[in-house]
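Regression check, flavin-adenine dinucleotide case 583:
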Amino acid sequence: MNHQPPVKEMADWGPKVIDLLDRLGVPFNRTQEGHLDRRRFGGTLYKRTAFAGATTGQQLLYALDEQVRRWEAEGLVRKFEFWEFLGTITDDQGVCRGAVVQDMFSMEIRALPGDAVVMATGGCGLIFGKSTMSMICTGGANSRVYQEGAKYGNGEFLQVHPTAVPGADKLRLMSESARGEGGRVWVPRTPHDSRDPKSIPESERYYFLEERYPTYGNLVPRDIATREIFDVCVKQGLSVETERLCVYLDLTHLPATTHKKLDGILNIYQKFQGVNPRQVPMKIFPAIHYSMGGIWVDYTKDETTGGLEHGAPNNHMTNIPGLYAIGEAEYHYHGANRLGANSLLSTIFEGLITGPSIVNYINSLKSSAADAPTALFDGAVRKHKDAMDDLVGRTGNENAYRLHDELGRTMTENVTVVRYNDKIKETLTKIDEIAERFKRAPLADNGQWTNQNLSFTRALGDMIVLAKVIALGALQRDESRGAHYKPDFQIDGLDPDSGEDLTEQARRWCKQFQANNDKWLKSTIAEHTPEGPKLTYEDVDLSLLSPRPRTYGLKGAEEIMRVWNSEFAKKPVETKKPVAVSA
Ligand SMILES: Cc1cc2nc3c(=O)[nH]c(=O)nc-3n(C[C@H](O)[C@H](O)[C@H](O)COP(=O)(O)OP(=O)(O)OC[C@H]3O[C@@H](n4cnc5c(N)ncnc54)[C@H](O)[C@@H]3O)c2cc1C
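Current build output:
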């Protein structure tokens, strides 16, 4: 579910990205011989992920922040911290010439002229009310460029992480590293067994992931683990607690040295739950975690390597010339169900590959933003000041925070783990209702200094717009693919007891799978119109590898794969080795 050239390029760069970070000082864990240590993540059978304790992302951030400060000290970087992006500035040719931003201390709105603007504004988890993402991840900035004409791709693909800790304010991730280091997921076989979990004998514990997926065990891909936890809690009624859905994530059997490696997340659990997870199994439940969809971006394929043409100005450029998008904000590198550890690699790779492309784009420009008439920038600032004045002057009896809660609830209930069209339609109606009521939601605080209430309410308006893109994309996609799961459109496994020849059944299954791919192995592309999102579908570049069935837990999987490989699969394309790149 992803154009293959950018994915291949990213995979080729993977080891170089790790080397780069290592040299920048990231404290990666090492083996006793001094090599980089590796651990397994969901969907993998081999240890292939470099890591730094259980806080890899945090450690990368420290190392990269240090580098930014270094360049800043040398006068090559100017930071605008606590300034909020409000929108782009485009000239009469539709070319991006800068951005409008607001100082969230003084509330000053100003234009920043620029020959290129890069959106690196992260995911949109807050549309679902609570998520594991940062509280700033509203998707507001991404929605703003979408409303200005940037295409939005695969909005309906949102990853739900199987293991998070429910919280009143937000959901906190218990990362896959816990299972990568041997953590086991289970529930008591007796519903709501109130005994101390440590006293429940092994024979009375249901290690459902290990039983159902003997090869992958606790490290099945995230969508599968999530659906199984739902199944066990909702359908089988085996939730650990009566009032709350949750299962055990058990690390109590692991040695102290392993606990030490996981201190980063275990301390979070202890801090917020008041229980030591080294001694007592954690209680966890799935939570929205990652936006696979995002702002649509372009690329140029290198026909020799099969990867990307280095320096091509359109690499990671949106359909608005001069506007780029990288990281979780854009729509590449995830398939329909991103694998663990993929995002830190993709965000850093994207920055590295896009930099030279931007330089080449800027060098090709006939005129610079610095030469653009001041009226262009003044007009853009005026537009956003007017919008802010409207918001500050708004009256009515609605409450933005309550509306956000309602939006989050309907999105979480109907557009996450298991999706049914009638329920998604209810959500679309609800989103329209919320959009109407939002017009009557005044600010709780009209102050003109560090007004976060203004920022949140403004972002809520943008979240509502993006929620519609997500829900409509989910409604129209009548199939199951990765994290987008519709039981009504599942292709069932084989039935060995039906009396029909198994190979015939497998052949029929493969034909159905192929027909479904012909129809749906496409990216959803949303374009903003005043009436709502207009959806079209973009073919995916599959020139390097032929897709194959995803058969986790499917009855008759072996026969399906045998028939697929012998009768249906296309041969992979030969490509040359990638040329050397300097990272
Ligand atoms: C708890 C947790 C654990 C994770 N663990 C892993 C892992 O182990 N491995 C892995 O590969 N991935 C992991 N991920 C995913 C990965 O961390 C993210 O996908 C990645 O950090 C995204 O990086 P980014 O730079 O694209 O966006 P972000 O890191 O989200 O940064 C976006 C930035 O944009 C800013 N911003 C947003 N809106 C505006 C606006 N309107 N104006 C100005 N600025 C704005 C934000 O303040 C933020 O600084 C994890 C994610 C979470 C939440």
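Comparison notes: Residues 163-289 form a domain with the Flavocytochrome C3; Chain A, domain 1 fold (CATH 3.90.700.10). The mean pLDDT is 95. No diff flagged against the previous build.
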